[in-house]
Amino acid sequence: MNTTTLNPGASLNEAPALSAQATHEDTADSREGISELGPELGVAGFLMLLGALVVFDSMRLGAGWADDGPQSGYFPFYIGMMLLVSSSVVLAKALACWMNRREADAAPSLLNRTFVGRDELQLVMAMLVPATLYVVAMGFVGLYASSIVLIAWFMRRHGGFGWPLSAAVSVGVPLTVFVVFERWFLVPLPKGPIESLLGF
Fold first, then answer.
1. Which of 2, 93, 124, 128 is the most buried (most CB within 10 A)?
2. CA distance 33 to 113
3. Residue 10: inside a domain, yes or no?
4. Is there a single domain that holds both residue 99 and residue 167?
């Protein structure tokens, strides 16, 4: 039975409380993860350094106008200056937002907006960490052994496949790559100690 029909005044009294609770939950959810302030500061600072490097190197090459036309660093100098000025403005706004973070009236938007949520960040890290380990391990154990472990990990962890299919695919794909590149096209790929023991 609908209680609102029995007591119409209850809906009017409970609505603000429910609205406030929903607003609080939305605010809490929006602050889970990384706010936009950190990436804004990092990217602006990196672009400032890049712009300063371009300006400095352009002046070393010559950023003026010679008798036969513009010098080598003429156009890169102005491009670096535009990059330096624009990133400086972004960095100054982000720093002002960070300095006013404790003032209630300021309500800096960069702190309230979420750059990446916790769930999205977990998805990114679930792909980034194994891929990074794969690249690092390739220098020690070679391409084929690293590929077997990576494919098996993704099939088991994220695909939910059983061990027989995961083992067949994780071994079959590197084996196919070996036959195609090493035997047919005669293109050597990175190998490790396992391949050396097998005589390849």
1. 93
2. 10
3. no
4. no
d(CA 57, CA 71): 12
Q: How far is CA 52 from the centre of its chain?
A: 25
Work out how many domains the chain is built from and give that number.
2
Residues 73 and 128 in one domain: no
Residue 184 is given by DSSP the state I
**pLDDT by residue (tens digit) across 76-135?**
999 999 999 999 999 998 888 878 765 544 444 666 677 778 888 888 899 999 999 999
> Is the same domain home to 123 and 182?
yes
Query: Residue 74 sits in which domain range?
Result: 31-115
Backbone conformation region of residue 70, classed left if phi is above 0, alpha if psi is from -120 to 50, else beta: beta
Residue with tokens 């008798």: 67
Tell me, yes or no, whether 180 lies in a domain: yes
Q: In 3D, which of 55, 137, 133, 38 has the Cα closest to residue 94?
A: 38
Q: Residue 191 in 3-state DSSP? A: strand
- DSSP, residue by residue, 90-145: HHHHHHHHHHTTT-TTT--HHHHSEEE-HHHHHHHHHHHHHHHHHHHHHHHHHHHH
Question: Which of residues 115, 130, 152 is at a domain's end?
Answer: 115
